[in-house]
Amino acid sequence: MRIAFNNLRILYGEDLELVRGNIVIEDGKIVEISNKVYKESIDMKNGIAMPSFTNSHVHIVDSVCKDIDLYKPIDMIVGKGGVKFKCLENKLREEKEKAVKDAMEEMLKNATLFFCDFREEEKSGIEFLANILKSYKLIEYKILGRSKDSKEIDSILEISDGIGIPDMEYMNINDLKRIRVKCKKKNKLFAIHCSETKREVKNCLKLKPDFVVHLTNIDDYDLYLIKKYKIPVVICPRANSSLAVGVPRVKELLEATLVGIGTDNVMINNLNMFREIEYTFKITRAIYRDYKFNAKTILKVATINGRKILKAKTNEIVEGNVADFVIFRNKPFLHDEYLAIVHRYSSEDIKVVVKENEVMFR
Ligand SMILES: [Zn+2]
Known about the structure:
The protein is 36% helix and 26% strand. It is of the alpha/beta class. The protein has two domains: 2-52 and 315-361, Urease, subunit C, domain 1 (Roll), CATH 2.30.40.10; 53-309, TIM Barrel (Alpha-Beta Barrel). Helix 3 packs across helix 4 (122-133) and helix 8 runs parallel beside helix 10 (250-256). The chain is globular and about 65 Å long. The structure holds zinc ion.
């Protein structure tokens, strides 16, 4: 299958450099970016092509528990035996399945074509989710599971993309280290929620994780360690704000390491990446009083950085890469494409979604 789109503004390559041109895709790959117009080219009328969103941290099944008891402290909501876990226990399988399907539709609607789930409920939790997700052709995913049973860890690694540790108190440090080694041997991801409320970066880094999630509450020494060991970080600013635990030091983390972004638990936040990037862009400008902090930086965090962190195929728009991008319609009187996407565009502005051989026109 060959499709040519012409008359585009393209956020090209790893710097999302703005170039004008045409994109030709064939057999799921970008085979040409040029100014050539073919007979069969589809006129995109000055639309904007951008790599699709990567939601680097989600608990998708929690969408069955939307907004139960948000007005409680974080430990009572997502801590051991908290509201979230009671809800997951009490919901029927069919209810969870419906909630996951709705969440997938929401992601598709908002151009999120890759996500990473931190799955609870041990082995059966992974099997349940993987079984639903396999029928979605446009959205790729990685599922990181968990289990306290060291014997079950091996079977979890067989059916998942790695392990997502909920917190440093989940097991003793030696057991955690053993799991970490197993992940490495099997070439699977090992990640951990870290410093959402407590200062624990030093401890988390003892596990040499592939990435850490949150880093909401950190001091300068923690930042120094993250920079020194170049540990990638997935921030979740809106989820942290929902839970009233602060916001990450976005600008300094961006200076220190590779940063991705996630919407986190669907119980306390929605999956809309447009909202995530606008919120993050604006609070960062406001908190640092930095009028130079730019929209392009946040777009990279929300699109191509996540794929690097999750060790997935890149979705940079470059010849030879897989076709994994969206095309936004043009709107009159826009003077800055990056800003337009970050704080003016929404799902209604998406004209085309391209995921390898699947092309969806809206
Ligand atoms: Zn999480």
